[in-house]
Amino acid sequence: MDNENFVSQLREFLEVKGLTSEEAEKYLIEVFKKAFEKDKDALSRYEEEEPEPANIEIKIDMEKGKISIKKNLEVVEEKTILSRFRQIELTDERIKNKNLKIGDSYTEVIDLNNINIGRRQHIKQLFLQKLSEVEKIKVYKKFSKYKGELLNAKIHKVLNRGNVILDYDGNSIFMPANEIPSLDRSKIIEGKLLSVYILEIGELSKDAQIIASRKSTGFIQKLIEREIDDVADGVVSIQAIAREAGFKTKVAVSTSISEVDAVGSIIGVKGQKIKPIVDEISGERLDIIKYHDNIKQFIAEALLPAEITGIKITENKEDWREAIVIVAKDQFLPALGKKGINIKLTAILTKTKIDVKTIEEANAEGIEWEKITKNKYISETNEDFMDSLNFDEYDTIEEIGETESKNYTIEDYYLDEDFENNNQNQKQKEEDVYDPEFENEEFN
């Protein structure tokens, strides 16, 4: 192996990859140091779990293509060697006639022309590994600014288990199957452009570096920011998002400008502004909620389409609180929602552990609660929007395992076996109380 040709070839190859001469020198030193800091041919009379690597000195002249590799070893007495990479016995043939004594330092000069084929292959393997790391670092630097943003990427390949590889500007983006809502399955077609949220970017990950999602709450937030000018301009602020992807999302919004209707700014006249967002999430139900600093108002608003009769805050902590919501009998199951989604998302949105009770149950238990009225707690814009979409009559939910959506009338809430009651008094089961602290991370 000719030193000058070898170094020159590696340098030119690295520079073709867009590296400067200084960067190429840095990476070459790392490769050669790693190749020689642990000598596979060295023997030790002791089994070391983590042997200390050799003390290697490397100097490279990038212009002349020359490399100098030296290994510094401590001279020790025969049969007392403890570190096979940093020590050498006094009787070793390499230091014979060197006039060295115990404790002296011996510098071994490594000639690349004399190393065996195995070591040469090892250097090449390390070089390719380093090159892979360099490529990943370049991608990381390029995409780090896109973390938490939306990108329109082309679907390159759909893998067997539903995972998707996308292409953006010649770079691969990986979207796991568990980051794709069930309603989006019809959108996953090779060659099609798809809006995705960049969830993670790994600097030196072994597999795909860029991880995308259409399931996260971040996807919804950036989608609204993209489509609604008032949000992008900061006139309307998104305060909280709770999502069960493929089923329902609740978004709480506010504004500091009294003349602006935060909810109406997103919904638009007859829902025209929100329609492109709903289309992008494949018809998933999207509730826009008016945010309130008053937690009672916020909970009442977030529980729509269910109308609550009263509320009591039983514990108010800095991060989470507990509340009892009082409803009429005919609002008990609508407050829970199909498969418990409504109360689950309300709890996450308001950071409140919610216990739903009927008026009869609350009175029987002697619970003192504040009576509320619709006008006091529900924003008119949001209520009109709910009525316009007939959410009091229909709730479109995609059944797991099915490809078509099914409409559920309000009677289906009462027929749903997930929430059927065991007695006429609507005695609530344990799952009627939703505790966000024990919620699966998927819905956080």
**Total helical segments:** 14
Widest sheet, order of strands = 7-6-5-8-9
| Percentage of residues assigned to helices | 25-40%
- State the separation between the terminal residues, measured CA to CA: 58 Å
Helix/strand class: alpha+beta
**Largest sheet data:** 5 strands, antiparallel
Rg estimate, integer Å: 33 Å
Number of strands: 19
Look at the structure and give the mean pLDDT: 79
**Outline type:** elongated
Query: In the residues, how many domains can be counted?
Result: 3
Strand content: 25-35%
Instruction: Catalogue the unreliable spans.
Output: 388-444
Explain what this protein looks like in three dimensions.
The chain has 14 helices and 19 strands. The protein is an alpha+beta fold and 444 residues long. It folds into three domains: 3-142, N Utilization Substance Protein A, Chain:P, domain 4, CATH 3.30.1480; 147-213, Nucleic acid-binding proteins (OB fold (Dihydrolipoamide Acetyltransferase, E2P)); 217-443, no CATH class. Helix 1 crosses helix 2 and helix 2 crosses helix 3 (117-143). Residues 388-444 have low confidence and may be disordered.
